[in-house]
Amino acid sequence: MTELAAQCTPPPTELPEDKLLQQLCNLLGGYLDPTQINTIVRAYHFGAAAHTGQFRRSGEAYICHPVSVAITLAGMRMDANGIMAAILHDVIEDTPITKAELAREFSPEVAELVDGVTKLSKIDSRSRAEAQAENVRKMFLAMAQDLRVIIVKLADRLHNMQTLGNMPPEKKRRIAKETLEIYAPIANRLGMNDIRHQLEALGFKAMYPNRYKAINNAVRKSRGHRKEVIDTIQSAIQNRLSETALECKVAGREKNIASIYQKMLNKKISFSDVFDVHAFRIFCHSVDDCYRALGSVHNLYKPIPGRFKDYIALPKANGYQSLHTTLMSPYGMPIEIQIRTHEMHRISESGIAAHWLYKSDSEKSDTIKARANEWLRDLLEIQKSVGDSLEFIDNLKVDLFPHEVFIFTPLGKIIKLPRGASIVDFAYMVHTDVGNACISARIDKKLVPLQTRLENGMTVEVITAAWARPNPLWLNYVVTAKARSCIRAYLKNFNQQEAIKLGRRLLEKELLSLNLRLEDIDDARIMSLLHSMKQHSLNELLEDIGLGNRMPFLVAKRLGQSDVNAAVKLEDQLTHHTTPLVIKGTEGMVVSLAKCCRPIPGDPIIGFFNPGKGIVVHHQECRNSNDVRKKQTTWLDVEWSQEAAGEFSAEIRIELLNQRGSLATIASTISAMESNIENITVVSQDERVSVDLLVLAVHDRVHLANIIRKLKKLSIVLKITRIKA
Asked: Is the distance from CB of 326 to CB of 337 less than 8 angstroms?
């Protein structure tokens, strides 16, 4: 990539790129025909010519990097177009060659693959983080068209990580951080465990070199200390399997250093307490043999309760299948065992690459590919509704670190969700429309609230209603990227439509005072105004007015002038119009009631424009409104509609005798008046008197007055007043 390319000193006289090309051709000869190999060699010469004069920091010709990437892909038996895309993956970014030239020289398919891997150039971003986020977003869009894009990208990142040695430490850490946060989890999500483990190990080594060195030394020492014990356990397992006539192979393996570090970090333990540094895998010929082998090892050593996982019956989201169990050996050391078929092992190492690597077992590889495509479709749906690339990356990271639970629909379909998911997450996973309209749910036929956390094996039935809408509070407990992005998208659109409606009402009210109507103003004048205000559409202008970013009377005055462009500094010429805007109360997000004075129907009120939030309605006696009222361009007269209905919050201050049952008497009196206490705050209290603030739910000013009158008649009440500021 560009970061690794540098115009340095010429390479040494020997040509390592020729050796790499020969190595590539040897690998390709095992599965491609000579015509395809000749086309790939032509792509090599094309790329080498394009990269002429470019060298890596190590001093070797830059073409060595894309050929090394192609060698990795050839090991996966990638098709000819994928190999050519790997060889040419940097020519659009680092050379004058264009996508159109590649399409003419090779094929449109190769050009699309190269373009999908290429970073965005000349990106207008506020930060490096945003630029990187935009690049990842673009790559995922390309992945949705062709999965080979991510395979090439992962091989590219793997070779970059293998050759980080000549990088400055700061750049090493930055590239390693991106690898650990994005690329290694993507490899995991696509089931490519071999690539993932290499990326994790190289990323950890670059990110924490001292920690890597310390753990690596400890692992080497432990090999000597534990070798005899490990060999004895492995022999015992192999012998027990042979006794039960199972033809299975037992292999020991060593956990990678990044996994050991994560375990030490998560469990807050030292290396000496990590007993499963060495683990065992049992490879069987059939699924039936796997379960029989599980019974044999459980008879050999005692299993540790709660440490068994069956990923054969319920595979992971990336298609991984295996039986996991942890046993207690006679040496007091827990040992981890994974049991799988040979085919499951190949799939677990290759993942999505199995589609190319194991053509003989097309059904399995097609299943893995289908899972990957399903995941990408969900990501595509998410990216359509997110606000920017950084939000997309946040959602992606949530999706890349799943710890699944398996939930059943009433018809028996299994849906996988991250651990900690709520019913809202489940509803959105079923369908976006189900999520948007959910109001409750039944778990195992019992009614439960939407924020209920789901556990393995639950059967969930979502209850929906036509009138239901997503609630902003859902964002506090959803954990899936799909649910979060769908809720945000709906609320954003709802807020936008509400702001447009309010903006239209405000503008029409001001135009009426100028004896004009919006529909009577010709399109040319509106377009001229939009151009001068740098707005793209009338709805965009109305939204700005509704959100309080533009004053409606200024816009109306400019629309009413014969020469729109001559209107400058209108604030000096305006007088505030007193035609009130009628409101019904809590009308939504862009008309809200101030919490400082809590106005209710019947109160004299005034509205203030709050940029980005719309109109905030205050009581006219509210102290907070005094300063703002002086700026006549930021407030407007509002009045309650005759149809204002519902419950509104009002705050009262009450002094009462501090005796047993006082609050209960107050509460029962308020309840008898068909009101409800929303909140109680004790301001001060002594042996005789308690001063409390109560927030009540009332219908209007008359309702509140009746409640206060009733409370004053109680012998325990000394004084009661309403809080208006």
From this structure: yes
d(CA 403, CA 401): 7
pLDDT digits (tens, 9 = 90+) for 222-268: 766 667 777 888 899 999 999 888 889 998 877 778 888 887 887 77
**For 126, phi and psi rounded to 5 degrees?**
-85, -15
Amino acid letter, 395: N
Options 93, 105, 540, 639, the catalytic residue: 93
| Beta-carbon count within 10 A of 523 CB | 8
Residue 723 has a pLDDT of 87
Q: Is 641 helix (H, G, I), strand (E, B) or coil?
A: coil
Torsion of CA 229, 234, 237, 242, to 10 degrees: -140
DSSP 448: E
3-state SS, one letter per residue, for 495-557? HHHHHHHHHHHHHHHHHHHCCCCHHHCCHHHHHHHHHHCCCCCHHHHHHHHHCCCCCHHHHHH
Q: What is the pLDDT of residue 10?
A: 40
- Give residues with Cβ within 8 angstroms of 536, minimum separation 6: 530
* Structural domain spans, the chain: 2-207, 221-351, 403-479, 489-640, 648-722
Distance CA 228, CA 249 (A): 19
The first and second tokens of residue 531, run together, are 């151009």
SS3 of 462, please?
A: strand
Fold of 648-722: Alpha-Beta Plaits (3.30.70)
**CATH number of the domain located at residue range(s) 2-207 in this protein:** 1.10.3210.10
Question: Catalytic residue among 17, 60, 90, 94, which?
Answer: 94
- CA–CA separation, 62 and 520 (whole Å): 66
Residues of the chain with pLDDT under 70: 1-14, 119-145, 223-226, 273, 275-277, 318, 351-404, 495-496, 513, 520, 546-549, 551, 553-554, 560-590, 611-614, 625-634
CATH 3.30.70.100 fits 221-351, yes or no: no
pLDDT score at 576: 44
79 a catalytic residue: no
- Please check whether residue 700 is in contact with residue 600, taking contact to mean a CB–CB distance below 8 angstroms: yes
Residue 94 annotated among the catalytic residues of the structure: yes
Proportion of the chain in helix, strand, coil states, percent, rounded to 5: 55, 15, 30
Residue 259 in tokens: 């996994």
Topology of the domain comprising 403-479:
Ubiquitin-like (UB roll) (3.10.20)
Q: Tell me the three state secondary structure of residue 441.
A: strand
365, two tokens:
């590889």
**Alpha carbons 532 and 302: distance in angstroms, whole number:** 79
What pLDDT score does 292 carry?
92
What does the pLDDT read at residue 631? 57
- pTM of the predicted model, to two decimals? 0.54
